[in-house]
Amino acid sequence: MNEIVKNAQSFIEVLQNSRAIDVKYWDSIGLQRALQWAKYCEEVYIKLKDKPKAVEQINKKLKLICCLPGASIGDDIISVQDLSQSQRLLLKNLIQNRYLPSCLFGEVLEQYTHLAEDSGSSGFDQVIQDASECIQAKSSQMYLHQNMRENFQMKEEHSDILNARLLKRFLVHHHSNSPCTQKSNEYLEQVLHSVASQPRGMRMIAMTISMPTETDEARLQVTACEQFVFDWIKKNKAKYILQQRE
């Protein structure tokens, strides 16, 4: 049991590092090593889930470990139950960390696909949920925007859908929650210009209008944002279509 706790502590340290600035020094080998720790913890959960006494003892020790600065998952304490989602916890930290190297972003998304294959759920739904949680955080806005414009190393149609869904959440949030409409619109126009300048950028922007919204904003707010995007497309479509032909 002491070995399990020791190894779980090692994974907690990996989780802590995956949320920190040090992640900018990670490479593919480091990512795979972290994933191996996550897979180990999931195997531990499978062995322990039907042993309530052992679970109780380990949870007490994990609670003590999680009192260390930065060792908890958000505001929660890591428990044996949390270990059942170790890979998801790790990937969520990474995709929300603006210091994650761009070269690893595609690998992280690919790991979401593997999770979907194992669980029978949609990897795109998981990554949308995890990435969207940090869209409202000011420090994460430009990070997400930058990576929306990167090559996700996926099929083009999948990349476009993922990017469009993230972009729409980003646009709806800022268009409907900004206290200054003029400044918000100017900022969002800059974002749209930046996205449109990328390969398939105009296609992705156009997709946001017809794509269902999964946010909690009122339908009126979503419609207003869609109208804003539609007006921007009408105003700028010719410019970017001409650029793509050159």
Structural notes for this entry:
There is one protein chain. The chain has 2 domains: 1-120, no CATH class; 134-246, no CATH class. The chain is built from 12 helices and no strands. The protein has helices at residues 2-18, 28-48, 52-65, 80-83, 86-95, 102-119, 123-132, 138-148, 156-177, 181-196, 201-210, 219-245. It starts with a helix and ends with a helix.
In short:
The protein has 246 residues and is mostly helical. The protein is 73% helix and 0% strand.
Which key phrases capture this entry?
246 residues; mainly alpha; 12 helices
Secondary structure layout plus pairing:
Elements: H1 2-18, H2 28-48, H3 52-65, H4 80-83, H5 86-95, H6 102-119, H7 123-132, H8 138-148, H9 156-177, H10 181-196, H11 201-210, H12 219-245
Helix pairs in contact: 1-2, 1-3, 5-6, 6-7, 7-9, 8-9, 9-11, 9-12, 10-11, 10-12, 11-12
Provide the gyration radius in Å. Answer: 21 Å
What series of H and E elements makes up the topology?
HHHHHHHHHHHH
Question: Helix count, per DSSP?
Answer: 12
| Residues in helix, % | over 70%
Q: Please, how many domains?
A: 2
Uncertain spans: 135-143, 148-155
- The percentage of residues in β strands lies in under 5%
Class by alpha and beta content: mainly alpha
Q: Write down the overall geometry.
A: elongated
Task: Determine the N-to-C terminus distance.
Answer: 65 Å
Please outline the major beta sheet: none
- Give a count of the beta strands, DSSP E runs of length 2 or more: 0
Based on the structure, what is the oligomeric state of the protein chains? single chain
Mean pLDDT, all residues: 77
